[in-house]
Design brief:
With 277 residues, the chain is α/β, with parallel strands linked by helices. Helices cover 46% and strands 14% of the residues.
Length: 277
């Protein structure tokens, strides 16, 4: 991993999953890390793990759908360490259940989802950019998804939100590049986090079916995304901005008609498969 010594990073949703792994990875690379999360107990657990590895970390409670909460998060890092070099906009927790389409989705569901998926990265940049501009450098990483590139039925809010993250990333990169600030996105494929693992423990045949969808014949781990974040915010990526880095084991490169036949053959050869959906 490239050195991030003496840099200051904020990771929203940094308690567990992709955010948890990213917080640990950035700290391992020398950055001082502020974990911002609504799950304080889990955030503190991750912070203890970072300190045990010799890292520097603080925890702040933050609801990324609220402007004041994000401003306080940014201010906390500045007050503690005097600068801000890296902002990872990662936090997301679906405030709704079931399938969503344009007819059945309520206005309240739409607003709540967009607040977490899109407004949060707008607010994060709004309060982070002035500090980065003052020091003449900075890196913002927005976590999108393969769902921002290819869409699925029954997921209106998530698909629209993750697509918007990619568009906002490009606009910010254009706007803030002259200030020395790079803005990039990451589009993960299926990542097995702590919350997802029990689903696959209960359905190993479904996991095998899922893995068969990927050219690498495996799904991702949180560290796969954390490593991509570490690269994009390092000097090794100093000429990369406005990019959406797809980290998906090859899922999105496949021609769909061939892919469908491939999966049909898999089910024929594995008739006892329990499908995940």
């Amino acid at each position: 991993m490239n050195s991030l010594e003496n840099q200051v990073a904020i990771v929203t949703g940094g308690a567990m999953g992709i955010g948890g792994a990213t917080s640990r990875s950035l700290a391992d690379s020398g950055a001082k890390v502020l974990i911002a999360d609504i799950a304080i107990e889990s955030a503190e657990t991750n912070a203890r793990a970072i300190r045990e590895r010799g890292g520097t970390v603080l925890v702040v409670e933050a609801d990324v759908s609220k402007a004041l909460s994000i401003k306080n998060m940014i201010d906390h890092a500045i007050e503690e360490w005097g600068r801000l070099d890296i902002l990872v906009n990662n936090a997301y927790n679906a405030p709704f259940g079931g399938n969503q389409n344009v007819v059945d989705t309520t206005e309240e569901q739409w607003d709540a989802g967009m607040a977490l998926l899109v407004k949060a990265i707008f607010l994060g940049a709004k309060y982070a950019v002035p500090h980065m501009a003052n020091q003449g450098s900075g890196s913002i990483i927005n976590i999108s998804s393969v769902h921002g590139m290819l869409t699925a039925p029954g997921s209106l809010i998530y698909e629209a939100g993750k697509s918007a993250v990619i568009g906002a990333t490009r606009q910010m990169a254009t706007e803030f590049g002259p200030m020395g600030i790079r803005v990039n996105a990451i589009c993960p494929g299926h990542i097995v986090t702590e919350r997802v693992q029990p689903q696959w423990d209960a359905n190993p045949s479904g996991l095998k079916f899922f893995e068969n969808q990927y050219p690498l014949r495996k799904v991702g781990k949180p560290d796969d995304i954390a490593n991509a974040v570490g690269f994009l915010c390092s000097d090794a990526a100093s000429f990369i901005t406005g990019h959406s880095l797809v980290v998906d084991g090859g899922l999105t490169i496949q021609l769909q008609e061939n892919f469908g036949v491939q999966q049909a053959h898999f089910l024929k050869e594995n008739p006892d498969t329990t499908l995940p959906y």
